[in-house]
Write a structure and sequence with these properties.
The protein has 352 residues and is mainly alpha-helical. The protein has helices at 17-34, 39-49, 53-77, 83-109, 113-148, 162-167, 187-203, 208-219, 223-247, 253-273, 279-305, 310-351; strands at 5-7, 14-16, 174-177, 182-185.
Amino acid sequence: MEWLYMIMPISGVNLFWPGLIILGLGVGIIGGFFGLGGAWMVTPGLNILGFPMAFAIGTDVAQMAGKSLISTMRHAKFGNVDYYLGITMLIGTIVGVEIGAQMVMWLERIGSVDKVVRWLYVVLLLLIAWLVFADVAKRKAKEREAKKKNQTLGKDATGFDWGKKLQAINIPPMIHYKQADVRCSFWLPIIVSLFTGWLAGILGIGGGLIRMPALVYLIGCQTHIAVGTDLFEVAISGLYGAASYTYKGRTELIAAIIMLCGAGVGAQIGVVATKYVKGYGIRIVFGLAVLGCLVSVVLKLLQAELPAYSTLLGALATVDVLSFVSLISIYITVRMVQGAKAELAAKKAAGN
């Protein structure tokens, strides 16, 4: 089975290359659907497949930039991208990315990068999962309350209404983002992007893991607009991050290209699927994907703490991340096909 492995020329890692294809295709579908670079799955996935954490981060940032650019162009055709909001957020993102990247270099020098980054992932994934499912539960409670009063809850109603409260903070200059239909202080997206940019740099993510929920819950965007706008921002910040990590010698370009080939195809499927799955449908699947990624990271942490079970836990972590990416990708693809069939049937019926 040696043909299933290849030596990476820069890192020297003997890598299971089919895992790269599965990750690339799967993260393309998932990233296009959720509006994320997908690094919250790919960085730990590459680390689990054998890359040192610094190389996993740099390689993932490189493939993420290209895939997100493809997804952004597709979302733009559906009117899901607010370019002005995305450009505003770039200001804080670029500063945050460089701060995070410098922190990774420092952690690598003191030999703590793997452990620190994995624990940061655990904390972040737990917070995001709680946010998504608490919001879903709160919205369902509002639906039940409205039903008791013989009322119908609006389609745009959310569980948490933090966005409206933050939009009401009047700190000049106030900006109206037309495509997102949001009016808020110019400083709100700047602060959000500074924090997500720092996460992008230190965790090797495009920031989308937290920026997409932040666009929805803190800035008040509709979910499909948050998806498209976030991908635009991920693409631009990812290009900067890729250049930064490549300059530092932590990007395995061959692995990035292999993943990008699959991701380019997968992104088309994921983006089209958002046409048929809206709002809370996207959020629930997103929450499940976060939980799946969390399990793989915890297994990798246990592997370091329990050396006697290292082989078993490492294998379980690999199976978890690859199978979960595959299952979520299949679900999204099936929903896209079902939606397309229903749309064609409706058009055919209307024609008759």
